[in-house]
Design a protein that fits this description.
The chain is of the alpha/beta class. Helices cover 27% and strands 26% of the residues. It is built from 16 helices and 27 strands. The structure holds adenosine-5'-diphosphate (ADP). Keywords: Ligase.
């Protein structure tokens, strides 16, 4: 017997209609580039609008794009920073039945062209600050018929098919009747960063977008409601800014966008001036903010951030030392979340479980893990033979995931080996190595490709990095595998010290030794001025490995003690 409930399709226009009809007065604030100072640095200008205006312009954008002859499923790319205009595209493009393709602006121009061609984008929305790239993009991307420039340019760009976005939106008729959409139709797409092989396209459906927004907002998730003011520092080209533009719109939260201004001082000022309650970004952003908050406090002029309830951190592991530093020095709470492009991205969030004292060491240990699943997401662990492993908090295995906002394949059917059946159900292999404990807390140990395999055993580079980053003289640390004739691979710590400070290998090892078996401890430490960071704010371990793979124990800061395997 079937139930009798309506089969209403879960689609993005329902979100657009909510901001238009219920939250029209709620604000959207964006830092735009007003010009350049003498050093060539961008000067900010604060732009204010409302959800009502965003909805009107999103519907005009939708109408205008269909007026260009685009039809259902056509791709509209963005090369844009976080701002109200990008938000209009988030809502307007899928509401027209088109697919919003957000492209990472930090990629190499050749990779950008490769991705635009692979997705066969017909229209590109490009930020004015990147307008210089337009001729090269046009030449490299034959599918691209129209380019709309977001924000004013000093002169009009005299190329066929290139026009000003604001004028286009103003002159277009608003779409008032949305096309019939199936909730399984494509709404948006993102490419993985291609750390292994070419980037792969992940295509989100309307349904997955709506369900992800519904599931990420509740209290034990990101905790977003109408009374909130949310500043997503995470770029809108990186997994839809973790879905926050949609989640905030669905629940009516005010949105604040920092554009190109993501340094510690700009972020702290914006958090204070706009009374932000929730913000989100990768650990490197929060390290910049922490340094700025410390500086201001020491100068006797602390920022006033009383309403800031949570800083969401994800993208790579948040060191426990950082979580503690924010809490103890500034009374600010970091919530760690985990996910990937293939999971929309929210998979887990790491709150303190019921019954555990939030100020206890146990609470901090749990918050430094990646946390428990949000509803409807399932996780499991497999060994190399595909057998399920115990959830005992100790056994490491390949992390697999399934759920209604997890990819079931890549665009054009690539990378099929990541998707597989287990006991008749579809799963996705995350490529992460993790543990799961009895309460469901997931703890990432490594990306499979970054794991250090020493004498047939696994060493977690993430655990070592987090422990080393708790040392007061350490700014950033990456632990990588170096080749070893006896053990195959051994850990090498690459460390950037804090300005004006230094540290020796022996000091670091004695600092972390109480927490690890002896054979886990790095054999050597390299001090360096900088560690390469990639387009999504993560350490480029592949570059470091290329540089230091055959690092010889006679160089630099070294203790080449043979690992003791007895523990
Ligand atoms: P990529 O890093 O391959 O570009 P994503 O941006 O989709 O792809 O990142 C997904 C990966 O980032 C995850 O598989 C995981 O390894 C890592 N990651 C994300 N959040 C966290 C976190 N909170 N802690 C540790 N690792 C994380």
């Amino acid at each position: 017997m079937q139930g009798n409930m309506m089969d209403v399709q879960l689609t993005v226009p329902t979100i657009l209609e909510r901001i238009r009809t219920q939250y029209a007065g709620r604000e959207v604030v964006s830092l735009l580039v007003a010009g350049r100072d003498e050093q060539g640095n961008p000067v900010p200008h604060k732009h204010r609008t409302t959800y009502g205006q965003v909805a009107d312009r999103a519907r005009r954008l939708a109408g205008g794009l269909l007026g260009l002859g685009l039809t259902k499923g056509d791709r509209v790319a963005t090369l844009a920073v976080n701002s109200f205009r990008h938000l209009e595209a988030y809502l307007g493009v899928p509401s027209a039945g088109l697919v919003l393709h957000t492209v990472n602006i930090r990629l190499h121009p050749e990779q950008i062209a490769w991705i635009l061609n692979h997705a066969e984008d017909r229209v590109l929305l490009i930020e004015n600050v990147f307008a210089a790239m337009i001729p090269a993009i046009k030449a490299a991307c034959p599918h691209l018929e129209h380019i709309l420039v977001l924000g004013p340019t000093p002169q009009p760009i005299p190329l066929p098919g290139v026009r000003d976005y604001d004028t286009f939106v103003q002159e277009s008729e608003a779409l008032t009747r949305y096309p019939d959409l199936d909730e399984r139709d494509a709404a948006a797409m993102c490419y993985t960063s291609g750390t292994t092989g070419n980037p792969k396209g992940v295509v989100y459906t309307h349904r997955s977008t709506v369900l992800h927004s519904l599931a990420s907002a509740p209290k034990d998730g990101l905790n977003v409601g109408e009374a909130d003011t949310v500043l997503p520092i995470v770029p809108m080209f990186h997994v839809n800014a973790w879905g926050l533009p949609y989640t905030c719109a669905m629940y009516g939260a005010k949105q604040v966008y920092a554009g190109v201004f993501a340094d510690g001082r700009s972020v702290a000022t914006l958090l204070q001036d706009e009374a932000v309650t929730i913000t989100a970004g990768v650990p490197t952003i929060w390290m910049g903010l922490l340094a700025e908050l410390d500086r201001a406090a020491q100068a006797g002029q602390p920022y006033v951030l009383g309403g800031l309830e949570r800083l969401i951190v994800g993208g790579s592991a948040a060191p426990e030392a950082m979580i503690r530093a924010f809490q103890t020095r500034h009374g600010l709470s970091l919530l760690q979340a985990w996910g990937m492009t293939e999971t929309h991205p929210l998979g887990t969030a790491s709150g303190v479980p019921y019954g555990v004292d939030a100020s206890s060491d146990e609470a901090f240990t749990l918050r430094a893990k990646q946390g428990r699943t949000v509803p409807l997401i399932e996780l499991d662990l497999l060994d190399d033979q595909g057998q399920r492993l115990p959830h005992d908090g100790k056994t490491m295995g390949r992390l697999i995931i399934r759920g209604p906002w997890v990819a079931s394949s890549y665009f054009k059917g690539e990378g099929q080996s990541n998707f597989f059946d287990l006991d008749g159900q579809g799963w996705f292999d995350t490529g992460d190595i993790a543990t799961l404990d009895e309460r469901g807390y997931m703890h990432i140990q490594d990306r499979a490709k970054d794991l250090i395999k020493s004498g047939g055993e696994w060493i977690s580079s993430v655990d070592l990095e987090n422990a080393i980053m708790a040392h007061p003289a350490v700014n950033l640390c990456a632990v990588i595998a170096m080749d070893d004739p006896k053990w195959d691979e051994r850990p090498l710590a690459v460390v950037t010290p804090k300005p004006g400070q230094s540290v020796t290998h022996d000091e670091l090892i004695s600092f972390i030794a109480p927490r690890f078996a002896k054979w886990w401890l790095p054999d050597a430490t390299v001090l360096t001025d900088s560690i390469p960071i990639g387009a999504t704010g993560k350490i480029l371990k592949r570059e470091l490995r290329d540089q230091y793979r055959s690092y010889s124990s006679t160089q630099g800061l070294v203790t080449p003690a043979a690992p003791d395997r007895s523990e």
